[in-house]
Amino acid sequence: MSLLETAFDAKTLIPELIGRFPVFGGLKPAELDAALANATLVHGPAGTILFDANQPCRGFPLLLEGTVRVSKSAPNGREILLYQVEPGEACLLSGGCLLGHADYTASAVAETDVRLISLPPEVFHRLLLGNELFRRFVFGMYGDRLAEVMELVEEVAFRRLDVRLAQMLVHRGPVLHTTHQKLAIDLGSVREIVSRLLRSFESRGWVKLEREQVTVVDPKSLMHLSSATD
Predict the structure, then answer these.
(1) Which domains does the chain possess?
(2) Which of 166, 208, 204, 200 lies closest to 183, judged by CA?
(3) How does pLDDT run across 215-226, given as a tens digit for each residue?
(4) What is the pLDDT of residues 108-127, one digit of tens each?
(5) 144-165: b or e for each residue (b if 16 or more CB lie within 10 Å)?
(6) Cα 103 to Cα 87: distance, rounded to the nearest angstrom
């Protein structure tokens, strides 16, 4: 599966862009036209790799539709979800790579069909230096993502995996259409351990396991476990 990059009529897309990213509504018309003059509209089906580790950053993506997972992989194959990008959000890692003139250090995969606008690096830098609204948007995004990553670090370092799994099941339930591998990635663990915990939950009557599906049967018991502190 590959990305499809196309040119677009800026005038027809500007209302949608401003609806998703109000910051662009604060740009002067000429400034907005210049920003979009060399931008590209990118389409990708679910499962498409948007970028991979060690690849150069080609632009600053603004997600219009779909959901993207940004994750980090280790040489032993373990993977951890860093964050998700939703419509109306930009990619923190892309901004960091452009600012630092560095390659990507993680990977991004389309969870669903996606559609986004990619601003060329020179446009990103020009807006960052010359427009206060855009600068606030970018650094505000950094503040939000940093808080999320710090929370992830705290959970992985200090909270028991069974507690975190129970909390995830309650939050995403009652029916989760997912695999044990995907749950493990989200939890920063490995599939074997997550599968063992899920089978333990099933033996207690808390969940029902089926192929690529987990059904929460006893949310009260899971909630009680998820509130455990030691």
Answers:
(1) 4-156 (2.60.120.10), 159-226 (1.10.10.10)
(2) 166
(3) 999 999 998 887
(4) 999 999 999 999 999 999 99
(5) ebeeeeeebeebeeebebbbbb
(6) 24
